[in-house]
Specification:
Helices cover 38% and strands 20% of the residues. It is of the alpha+beta class and 182 residues long. The protein has one domain: Aminopeptidase. It has a 5-stranded mixed β-sheet with strand order 1-2-3-4-5, sandwiched between helices. β4, α4 and β5 form a beta-alpha-beta unit. α1 crosses α3. The chain starts with 11 loop residues before the first strand and ends in a 6-residue tail after the last helix. The structure holds coenzyme A. The site of coenzyme A (COA) has 22 residues, from α1, β4, α4 and α5.
């Protein structure tokens, strides 16, 4: 891990506004493309899902329990964004958690500490809301994401595992024998 304050891109991190919507949608689609390319086995988003990104980002901007932050470069252009929201879980021992939903920095701006600053802005929001834990989901195979979250001290706790139905039937047959499998 490098020392704090090493490479530092000249950006401003601020709360997003409605005027940022087009750029937020573009970056949300870029993030989707990035994670799908990182691991071809994950469920890919349909065209309808991609079209719904605009509504998704509008909802994120309107969420009273959410925060959307952006980083802007010297000419005011958006170079990164992050979104987070509060999860309330009365049935759990952690009653209020912070969820980091999306973080992306535009390609040529990566590696300059912008992702870290966006997470710092979400961290302040979570502190204000008194969260007891902070969670993020990332795709295995997204090396940038994996390294980034581990570098920030996030520890993987839950794995999501998948198998195709045909393959599961085969595996069950091997374990149970053909007589027992439905
Ligand atoms: C992950 C991401 C947001 C990090 O933003 P960033 O501005 O590049 O991050 P920072 O400059 O603050 O770097 C922090 C750490 O991230 C890791 N990192 C950054 N770029 C990386 C890369 N290309 N490969 C591997 N690790 C990388 C490093 O551990 C780095 O720490 P270091 O500089 O001490 O080595 C950015 O790489 C990105 O947008 N990636 C594509 C989208 C994505 O994967 N988002 C996360 C989805 S869960």
């Amino acid at each position: 891990m490098a020392e704090a304050g090493r490479r530092r891109a000249q950006v401003i991190v601020r709360k997003a506004t409605d005027a940022d919507l087009d750029d937020l949608v573009r970056m949300a689609v870029e993030l989707q493309d990035h994670v799908e390319a990182s691991n071809p086995k994950i469920w890919h988003m349909s065209e309808a899902g991609r079209r719904s990104k605009r509504v998704e980002m509008m909802d994120a901007l309107r969420d009273p329990e959410g925060m959307v932050v952006v980083a802007t470069g010297g000419e005011g252009e958006l170079v990164g964004m992050a979104t987070g929201r509060i999860l309330r879980k009365e049935e759990m021992t952690v009653k209020v958690a912070g969820s980091i939903e999306r973080v992306i920095v535009r390609k040529k701006w990566r590696g300059g500490g912008i992702g870290t600053r966006l997470v710092a802005a979400l961290s302040s929001f979570f502190d204000e809301k008194g969260v007891g834990d902070i969670t993020v989901r990332y795709v295995l195979g997204n090396v940038e994401g994996e390294t980034f979250w581990k570098g920030l001290g996030f520890e993987p706790r839950i794995e999501i595992a998948n198998i195709g139905p045909g393959k599961l039937r085969q595996e069950l047959k091997k374990l149970m024998g053909s007589d027992e499998t439905p």
